[in-house]
Write a structure and sequence with these properties.
Elements lengths: L1 H22 L3 H21 L3 H25 L2 E6 L15 H13 L2 E6 L8 H4 L4 E5 L6 E6 L3 H9 L6 E6 L7
Parallel strand pairs: 1-2, 1-3, 4-5
Antiparallel strand pairs: 3-4
Helix pairs in contact: 1-2, 2-3
Length: 183
């Protein structure tokens, strides 16, 4: 009877931890809660007479995966933007800061990243997401005059950027699927 109460409590705790992981904005906090989630899961495996699976969960889910996440997060210090725009949208002049630069600066500050903007001619880069560590491509649609912010659909950062630009009528976020190129 006590084992059932403990198992039910652990399952409720798993749901709460999963919700915290999903709504968390801090990457380090997410990794810590992921490790805790894995420990609770390992405890459930143990209560269900699967100690070998519990041991594997502790080793992989609580130790190796968080370590990989922390290494990955620590290497992600820059947000690299390729600009195909030739106007003041992404300018960083002391007398005038463009709307796009202001938006991306706020965005990168939120994640603790350094903003790097590189200018390039439209059409000079092929398959940019695959060949380089580029996070975003900025273009201007000639017909609608909207600024197109193109990024990887798999990037968690793109969801936040999409939220930040919801009320910007001249900015559209486009998520590009893995395997597609922006040619």
């Amino acid at each position: 009877m006590n084992a059932m109460i403990i198992a039910d409590s652990l399952q409720i705790l798993l749901i709460i931890i999963a919700a915290v992981i999903v709504i968390s904005k801090d990457n380090l906090q997410m990794v810590v809660f992921f490790a805790v989630f894995s420990l609770v899961t390992a405890s459930l495996y143990y209560f269900n007479q699967a100690p070998d699976v519990a041991l594997a969960e502790v080793a992989i889910g609580s130790a190796i995966m968080p370590l990989i996440f922390i290494i990955s997060i620590s290497r992600q210090r820059e947000f690299i933007v390729i600009s195909h725009v030739n106007d003041e949208f992404l300018s960083n002049h002391t007398y005038k800061i463009g709307k796009g630069y202001e938006l991306l600066s706020e965005f990168t500050r939120h994640y603790g990243l350094k903003l790097k903007i590189y200018k390039s001619e439209l059409g000079s880069l092929k398959g940019i997401f695959r060949s380089r560590n580029v996070d975003l491509i900025v273009e201007k649609c000639p017909s609608t005059h909207r600024y197109l912010l193109k990024g990887k659909e798999s990037s968690i950062l793109m969801n936040k950027l999409e939220q930040m630009t919801e009320n910007e009528p001249l900015i559209e976020v486009i998520k590009i699927r893995e395997g597609e190129t922006d040619d």
